[in-house]
Specification:
Blueprint lengths: L3 E2 L6 E2 L13 E4 L3 E4 L1 E4 L2 E3 L7 E4 L1 H4 L7 E4 L19 E3 L8 H22 L15 E5 L16 E3 L2 E5 L5 H10 L7 H17 L4 H11 L6 H11 L18 H24 L27 H21 L12 H17 L1
Parallel strand pairs: 9-10, 10-12
Antiparallel strand pairs: 1-2, 3-4, 5-6, 6-7, 7-8, 11-12
Length: about 375
């Protein structure tokens, strides 16, 4: 994530902000501009000092529900581009929202949209292709935020499974509830489970379909590293939850869940790559460097920005090791668990390199 500043008073801003704490101006993120401070121009229109001559309107989910902070450029007369859309590009991807008549769901919807916008930001920055289901019913991307039926998941009611099918990513709304997510993380013995992590994992399945499935050369390289995805998925799922991962799984995989099936290995590795890209971009934007007094300690004089720079994978992984070492130490100093509870084996790094190459080829 980049570091943003108010275009009127230069105050430091963050991606989710809606008002500048110094000059109180309304803020909005515009993919073509960045996070910008706005001036009202009447008739629900806004202007930005960094985009002279362009009018903006706030996303309807911003102005009506306050679950979004994006704005939409208003096409000039004669332009047909998305002239009628009331929703921003990120919100257009959401096909089903939670039931807002249920108490607390507006807050959970907000948290889901925050995580999804961070995902969309990274996809845009990496230049990865996607369209809405309205634009491309076959290969488009959509999100559905669904709830367990009354009595579920522990009763007899139907349970919503977070997952992906044909470009539709379903997220169980309960995952936006911190207490429920931690409960599930504990029950499943997972060291890491975040809302953003779910989005990154599930979109990995989407990009497997888009970037690998129909490319014979890349599919062959995938199978050499991850295994044959034609293996029975339901049988693999059953075996995983009955027997668990092999004891030596850390020698080959980024996580225990990645051992379940080649598709899940890919999705876990893909999510891991997005973790790396976003965190390194943030560290670079913040000017983070590690220059310890001892030469044998993790060192990185300048964190590379894998989004803005042409960074080799080797430089990314070396910097990642140093940054996560510091990140975990800082977390422990605050009394928290490790922010990055992973150890990357040689085989896992090979798979990450394959994701890096796949993203590069796609963009």
């Amino acid at each position: 994530m980049k570091v943003f500043h108010c275009d009127h008073c230069d105050q430091l801003l963050f991606f989710e902000n809606v008002n500048c704490v110094r000059c109180r101006r309304t803020l909005a993120y515009v993919p073509e501009v960045g996070l910008t401070s706005l001036d009202p121009a009447g008739r629900h229109r806004w202007t930005s000092p960094v985009a002279p001559g362009t009018m903006f309107r706030l996303c309807a989910n911003y102005s009506q529900h306050n679950v979004c902070n994006w704005a939409i450029p208003i096409p000039k007369r004669g332009h047909k581009r998305e002239a009628s859309n009331a929703l921003c590009r990120a919100c257009l991807l959401t096909r089903t929202i939670p039931n807002l008549s249920r108490e607390g769901n507006i807050r959970l919807w907000y948290k889901l949209e925050v995580a999804k916008r961070r995902l969309v930001y990274t996809l845009d920055q990496l230049g990865l292709p996607y369209q809405t289901k309205h634009e491309d019913p076959k290969a488009g991307l959509a999100f559905e935020f669904l709830e367990d039926a009354p009595g579920g998941p522990d009763g007899n009611g139907a349970c919503v499974l977070t997952g992906h099918a044909d470009g539709v990513i379903t997220i169980n709304v309960a995952e936006a509830n911190d207490a429920e997510r931690v409960k599930r993380r504990t029950e499943l013995g997972e060291p890491y489970r975040t809302l953003l992590g779910h989005f990154r994992h599930e979109v990995g399945h989407y990009y497997w379909d888009r970037l690998i499935r129909d490319d014979p050369k890349r599919l062959g390289a995938f199978r050499a590293l991850f295994g044959d995805e034609q293996a029975d998925y339901q049988e693999a799922l059953k075996r995983h939850y009955e027997q668990g991962p092999a004891k030596d799984w850390q020698d080959r995989y980024v996580s225990a869940y990645a051992t379940m099936h080649p598709w899940e290995d890919w999705a876990e590795t893909w999510a891991h790559y997005l973790h790396m890209s976003d965190t390194l971009e943030t560290a670079a934007a913040c000017g983070i460097a590690l220059v310890p007094s001892r030469r044998d300690e993790p060192t990185v004089k300048k964190v590379p920005d894998p989004i803005a720079e042409d960074v080799s994978f080797e430089r990314m992984i070396t910097s990642w090791s140093a940054v996560t070492y510091a990140l975990n130490n800082l977390n422990r100093g605050m009394g928290h668990d490790d922010a990055y509870p992973f150890v990357l084996s040689t085989e896992a790094v090979k798979k990450l390199r394959f994701v890096h190459q796949t993203v590069g080829a796609a963009t």
